[in-house]
Write a structure and sequence with these properties.
580 residues; Alpha-Beta Plaits; Rossmann fold; 3 domains; 19 helices
Length: 580
């Protein structure tokens, strides 16, 4: 028995901050959601947007609408989809009890015999309830004079608005001329028909995915909004190379867990090594979109996608609504021992540099909110010694004494190359620190500390990191050094200028001093920066006041001073002084 098609229309509000993400998700809807819509008897489903108001129009061709909707609500993939989209929506006031999307009242319907009118233009218009004649009746009168014009026209009322849905062939578009200024066109953000969806895009995601947690799942679910997600994970050996440790979960177990997620199309283990270990998989999969989060973004990945004609997207790390932010770093025994950033003057803590000219090293202690790569200039080697010494957190006690203990532990008698004391001091001393080194000294003669909240917040607001990848094992920063009193003095002066600019919260002066500090380092240690690093600088220099490399360079992180951190860069959190 054939049942006549039924039309349903409804409205809901879209939270403005989710507009871009909502549209992206619906233009790359989960294939399983589209399949469930078709199986539930919905043949022509479109969502339009105007301002913050979403208007949906759907045609149901089955015999039991309630049963179709119940099956949709029970579908696992659809429920996961709703977990992403529901927090972006806000029901309209005055809706009936139990409604999420509020049903609209049908006022008029014409041309249902043409449904679904393949290849037609689909349009929707919205007009305030009190608007003068928006021209809708004039359109219908015109069509009635010429029945040969196939037109589907439906009008709905509700929630202080009139809604017009139209489907018409392109060649008859002139019929719409009577529409007046009171009828505003709506943007189509989603459409599916009974003949099935087009091939979904291939989405490429690469990473470690150790100790799978809710943050990983939220990221992968959002990525699935752009198409079928192909996850390519680093091998155990590659992770050991990049992170300085093996993963908690071996590669086969990580693959098993990811393959079990409905939002993941497939998972592979990368055959390559290094930060671009996925090159072979990328060629095999040939994705449409390459997606990373802010920590996974690197200029090298972006350049590779640009050269390969692959869309490159950087997603923010956002937890699922109602859940805490998660990262593998925080889950690894909840270790709170900080990292260190040397803001300026680095190398003056080495006696063979300070003997040419005394000067300061500026450091900030960084909370471990990011799993920084090993051998990347964030004092990760010293931090590992601190973990070996104190396990998961810094002990209570005098910070200066603790820094001396850590320095001595890292540099026992007989050590060949002494690690500079700015590493241990930068980790242990909270806030911003000015460490002044006399000629030929391993330890600073004086230390100035800043715990002013306004200054620390100012630094956090204007400092960000770009991931470059860790230094290779063969990297030798000491090869070809050229250290003399003139160059050491330039480095010291630049560090003093950075200090004064930070205290004054003068962004322009900070940037002007930040660059010479980097240039002075490279003048003494030419191996710090190669062509790939200067290419990365070129991508960001127009929007940055200043830049330098973390630690000894050769990779690691490009540190930017900016008025507004660019999308995809890593933000930092400075460790505050404890009140205990």
């Amino acid at each position: 028995m054939n049942h006549p098609p039924q039309t349903f229309a409804s409205v809901i509000r879209l939270k403005p901050e989710y507009r871009e993400r909502y549209i992206a998700l619906h233009r790359n809807t989960f294939p399983g959601v589209l399949q469930r819509i078709a199986r539930s008897g919905i043949s022509n489903y479109t969502i339009f947007l105007s301002g913050d108001l979403l208007f949906s129009h759907m045609v149901y061709e089955g015999s039991d609408f309630a049963a179709g909707m119940k099956a949709m609500a029970a579908d696992k993939t659809t429920r996961q989809w709703w977990l992403l989209t529901d927090p972006m929506q806000e029901p309209v006031e005055g809706r009936k009890e139990g409604e999420w999307w509020a049903a609209l009242e049908p006022v008029m319907s014409y041309g249902e015999e043409y449904e679904p009118l393949p290849g037609a233009l689909r349009m929707a218009f919205i007009a305030p309830a009190g608007a003068a004649n928006p021209g809708w009746k004039d359109i219908l009168d015109y069509v009635l004079k010429d029945p040969g014009i196939p037109l589907i026209m439906k009008i709905f009322n509700g929630y202080d608005h009139h809604f017009l849905y139209l489907a018409i062939e392109e060649k008859h578009r002139s019929v719409l001329a009577p529409l007046t200024g009171s009828a505003h066109p709506m943007e189509e953000v989603f459409h599916t028909e009974s003949n099935g969806p087009e091939r979904p895009k291939k989405v490429f995601v690469s990473g470690c995915f150790d100790m799978l947690h809710s943050g990983h799942v939220a990221f992968l679910q959002e990525a699935a909004g752009y198409g079928n997600v192909h996850v390519c994970i680093g091998s155990d050996e590659t992770i050991a190379q990049l992170k300085g440790r093996y993963p908690v979960y071996p590669e086969k177990e990580r693959k098993y867990l990811l393959d079990a997620l409905s939002c993941v199309h497939e998972c592979r283990i990368n055959k390559g090594s290094g930060i671009l270990d996925f090159l072979e998989e990328l060629k095999e999969i040939r994705p449409d979109v390459f997606i990373v989060n802010e920590e996974g973004h690197t200029p090298a990945k972006e350049a590779l996608c640009h050269e390969s004609g692959i869309e490159y997207k950087v997603l923010k790390r956002l937890p699922h609504q109602g859940l805490p932010a998660r990262s593998t770093t925080l889950l690894r025994t909840e270790c709170t021992i900080p990292f260190r950033i040397d803001l300026a003057g680095g190398w003056l803590d080495q006696p063979y540099v300070s003997k040419h000219h005394p000067g300061p090293v500026l450091t900030i202690s960084i909370e471990p909110t990011v799993e920084f790569n090993d051998r990347s200039g964030m004092a990760s080697s010293t931090r590992r010694k601190a973990i070996e010494l104190w396990h998961h957190e810094l002990p209570h006690g005098d910070p200066g004494h603790l820094a001396r203990v850590l320095f001595s532990f890292e540099n026992p008698p007989g050590t060949g190359i002494i690690a500079g004391s700015q590493d241990s001091l930068g980790i242990v001393l909270p806030g911003l620190n000015y460490l002044y080194y006399e000629p030929g000294s391993y330890w600073p003669s004086r230390i100035q500390q800043v715990h002013n909240e306004d200054i620390l917040c100012w630094i956090e607001e204007h400092l960000c990191l770009v991931t470059l990848g860790p230094r290779v094992k063969q990297y030798d920063v000491l090869a070809g050094t050229d250290i003399n009193p003139v160059k050491a003095k330039v480095l010291a002066n630049a560090a003093d200028n950075c200090w004064n600019a930070i205290l004054a919260r003068d962004l322009a002066a900070f940037g002007v001093a930040f660059r010479p500090s980097f240039e002075a380092q490279v003048a003494m240690y030419p191996n710090m920066a190669g062509e790939d690093i200067y290419d990365a600088i070129a991508r960001y220099r127009d929007g940055a006041a200043g830049w330098k490399l973390s630690g000894a360079g050769g990779g690691g992180y490009l540190i930017l001073v900016t008025a507004r951190p660019p999308e995809g860069t890593v933000r930092i959190r400075i460790r505050r002084k404890s009140n205990i």
